[in-house]
């Protein structure tokens, strides 16, 4: 969901570009055969029909991203743009696959690109970035719309369009890989030496779907802040709104920030260093009741944090439960911006009401309730549990993307690398950690899984926040070194940014290990920290 989600939650105009980590691995020589951007033939992937194929040589330059995400990339070299439209007989769908191939300097690699929120593929920015870095890259729109476009969800009869949902959930990414590789063969006259998939959020989920269902598509998959367990977590992330509505308590943005800041301050030194970063959010046990009675000035008015405010925040951090107390899903990580999912605003009469984040709100209204006019504010605690279970029952198989059996991907020789921010305000980090632990239980333990799948958690980092927005990490470089040279990443080099805007060099630790200050040395230097097993393990 990338920068869009952060911007929407903050109510800030969208002007910033979206960035993709670039690979620093050495490039290969260009193809010896003539570059062909004139006649490109594509054989239809199984179960599809090819409706059209066009090839156009583009001059490059500055590429502007389309849709709500926007963004731009400058200095893009000339490239061949091949557009392929495919459909599934009887489904009345039309999915467009775009493949961009640099005219000169191709590094011999192929890269598939994921989407964001309800957009199945890239808006042009990541395609341009990939071409600029020497990759031939492909993406698909799956026949659906932009990031917040849900017009495709229901058909004319008010029923879920299962064909388009299947496109969005899984098959279109696979078909894009099949088409894109054919286009590479046709344009360069040879196969790509290595194939990679990259994506964050929805794109991260798509990467896991590729590993689970189409294990031969890619040699390496970089799937960050992944929206796996979609059918569960989409409903689960509405929990903050359900809590506020049922408790009839809506903490102001200042109060929400006060709770977050207090928790970060209280848990900052768990790693032995005071640097404004919570190293292991799952170990932070700050009790929000400690702030009861605290006075704040919000928008020029003095407010006092109440017991009701603290109770709401405590439930949000704890995560959704049934009325009998059974845990359904992890809560918002301590240290994450609570305003992302617990936002509220006055209506036209000045009455404060919840303002749900549009992505999970749309999932509940369109796909679960099949009613775009559904009023989320009416959901009780018991109804929430019913909706959570309904979403899982109806959609877990098609879009859950949480099958822990990755044996086929391992046997194919594939490598899966993921980083996830520990202050992710939209996708609870613990859900990804729990999935990794399920894979370990299914596949014979951590050592066996580490051979092909590694997870890195980034302290103080928000949703997709290492993509050049609030920190950085070159996950693609680490992945290519792993795939092409067998150098499994023990750590992932990153630049982290705390709430005060201070930057710190850190080596992210392979899960479940966490970083701990050695007691001496510059806090800005990664060498001052080492990876250790957390106390809970």
TrEMBL record:
UniProt superkingdom: Bacteria
MF term (GO), any: carboxylic ester hydrolase activity
UniProt entry tagged with the keyword Disulfide bond: yes
Keyword check for Zinc-finger: no
Entry protein name: Tannase
Annotated keywords: Calcium, Disulfide bond, Hydrolase, Metal-binding, Serine esterase, Signal
Highest classification ranks of the organism: Bacteria, Bacillati, Actinomycetota, Actinomycetes, Kitasatosporales
Pfam family name, one: Tannase
Organism this protein belongs to: Streptomyces davaonensis (strain DSM 101723 / JCM 4913 / KCC S-0913 / 768)
Endpoints of the signal sequence: 1-25
Family: Belongs to the tannase family.
Coiled coil (residue ranges): none
